Amino acid sequence: MEKEEEEEEEEEEEEKEEEEEKEEEEEEEEEEEEEEEEEKEEEEKEEEEEEEEKEEEEKEEEEEEEEKEEEEKEEEEEEEEEEEEEEEEGGRRGGGERGHYLLRLANDLRK
Question: Are residues 69 and 75 in contact, defined by beta-carbon separation less than 8 angstroms?
């Protein structure tokens, strides 16, 4: 009788140990899955940030290019206005061709 009780207790204890081991393994697996998920989320977040930075840089480059084009356009308009004014002044003085020559010379010197 006693022997049977001992065996029964041993079996119960073994089952209990096995159950505990199984629970520990499940917990470890869950922890690993959580860590992997966190790493994945972190990587996605970093990729998003890099993409945003890239887009911001492209936007800034476009704005700089537009500003440069605008400045060039303004310079061209100013030069045209100056040429017209100088031609008008040359025409009033009777210089005509001479005024045009001076205008070209002035523009060449500016360059």
Answer: no
Instruction: Give the global pTM.
Output: 0.46
Task: Give which of 78, 85, 73, 72 is closest to 102, Cα–Cα.
Answer: 85
Residue 5, phi then psi, degrees to nearest 5? -65, -40
> pLDDT digits over 86-109, tens only?
777 765 555 555 566 777 777 787
Average pLDDT, the chain: 88
3-state secondary structure 29-67: HHHHHHHHHHHHHHHHHHHHHHHHHHHHHHHHHHHHHHH
